[in-house]
Design brief:
There is one protein chain. This protein has 294 residues and is an alpha/beta fold. It has helices at 3-15, 18-25, 29-43, 59-87, 99-102, 105-114, 132-137, 199-211, 224-232, 242-248, 278-293; strands spanning 48-51, 54-57, 92-97, 121-126, 143-146, 155-170, 181-182, 190-193, 216-220, 237-241, 253-259, 263-271. Helix 8 (199-211) links the parallel strand 8 (190-193) and strand 9. The two termini are 57 Å apart.
Length: 294
Amino acid sequence: MNLRHIEIFHAVYVNGSVSAAARALNISQPSVSKTLRHAESLLGFQLFLRTSGRLVPTEDAHSLFAEVAEIQDRVHALREAGRNLKRGVGGTLRISALPSLALDALPVAVASFLRTHENVKFDLQTVHHDDLLRKLYERECDIAIAYEVPPAAPIGHRWLGEGELVLLYREQDMPDAPPRVGLECLAGKRFISLAASGPIGQLFSEEVERLDLTLNEVVSARTFYIATALVRQGAGMTVVDSFTAQASLAPGLSVRPLKPQITFDVHAMFLLDRPPTALATDFLKTLARVIDAA
């Protein structure tokens, strides 16, 4: 017997007739009768006696039903689990993100997602670019959110949006800042460098080199968090990603995009043999909307 035979047998046994079984399964009566006859042919014995227009289970059918009921319950549970995954009911999303995205964009997306997926759980952690592949390979996370896809790495990725480099500064240090700031305006000002902070720092360094600028780098910070804290304390100004800047704004601080604009992509990365589930894909759509609105 296959699962279809089991389903038909179970429905007829529980409902007492072919017509009632057909209604329960939302199929035609001839289909029920044909499948039931096929099951009996495979088994080599009758499952029901046809008396006075009704189907009466045989003793063999009673014996078989105990086993079939357990299988049917498992099939029902499997289908329900599939529907729950599709609807986003239950499940845990294990996500790593760069600290800059974990400051604001990721929490906003998680909070928004939980409003419509109350039973979903999140396991969140931060990851630096140098540690991204290890987190994925060692299964510490299922998805990593970062700016640069490691070259030649055997991983899949999905584009979520883009950010840009911006100047974060104290208003009193540049009270007449234009809507967009050219890097040449930073010459002579106390500057907190992030040249050693990964792909974003490298992106900025390449632009400085292209313009042949020399900046007054009073501090070289390894993390965006340290750089923004130094700006708040009046140590200087810095260029960071737009997500870090928005999350770090405080009274007296301002943000200006650069001129010309310097943008970068945001990607969700995953192992090729473990692509995002339907639930994870729904969450990534939410995160993409948050990034687009930032």
